[in-house]
Give the backbone structure.
Amino acid sequence: MPELPEVETYVRELEPELRGRTITGAAVTWPRTIAAPHADAFPAMATGQCFARFHRRGKYMLLGMESGDTLIVHLRMTGKLQVKPGDAEADRHTHVRFGLDDGRQLHFHDTRKFGRIWLVADTQPVLAKLGPEPFADEFSVAELGKRLAGRRAAVKGLLLDQSIVAGVGNIYADEALFLAQIAPQRPGGDLNEAELRAVRDSVRQVLGRAIELRGSSLGDSALQNYLRPGGEQGGFQLEHNVFRRTGEPCPVCGTPIRRIVIAQRSTHYCPHCQK
DNA sequence: ATAAGGCCCTGACCGC
DNA sequence: TGCGGTCAGGGCCTTA
């Protein structure tokens, strides 16, 4: 599932492909994909726009246009944004197609149909609720402590809350808590300063390494839920310590990795190393 | 304010 | 082989 490292990879790899290209047309075949403007108005608003600089905020891709508008793309579970040859067919899971002035196409493909696209002049309303970027100074130990203070919910669930820190999803929450040696079911408000620092540092470490390896691709055959824009796999799945390794030995102590459910999400951890 | 549960979707997978 | 039921999972919405 695309989280911050996967979205960062998309932004880095798509910008050189698309920058300077002009959209010559757009077709929407699953209207709910378009969050704004209304799907009926989307093709006309997109047509004629030229791609400029790309950015990322949390798990949102921000494709800046020369006009100042921004095409915001959230891949959610299974979304993919891929540049294709001009004669590429749209399969049943391709819900938005853009024509480009170099003859190629840009396809938004999404098996689960949870992904969303906005084309807006002002990104602020879409991004307003997001917490700090993990690599920003604003994601300090003190700030994290303030956001977790008094919270009784499990720290794992709180790491998935995008208003606490932006960009962490199920894979990286589990991997960060393993590195931090914190049990995922611990109430967030119970962490002391050293533990908060361990969580903060581990989130950065795991996301940074995953960006270097261009994300995690999990082998779910047809549901292969993350591929880079060119269709290649990322490499961080080879370094997962706990995620989807239930029953396998902990790489540190050998205790079998345990799977539990927290906040309706599968959670994987080492019951010996994580206190 | 916080927490918990439902919902959107589809394909994989399981048991019979 | 075929079929029905269950599950995963991010973000948003509703309910308590």
The mean pLDDT of chain A is 93. Chain A has two domains: 4-127, 141-269. Residues 1, 3, 59, 74, 76-78, 112, 114, 116, 160, 162, 169-170, 223, 225, 264-266 of chain A lie near DNA strand C (CB under 10 Å from a C1'). The radius of gyration of chain A is 20 Å.
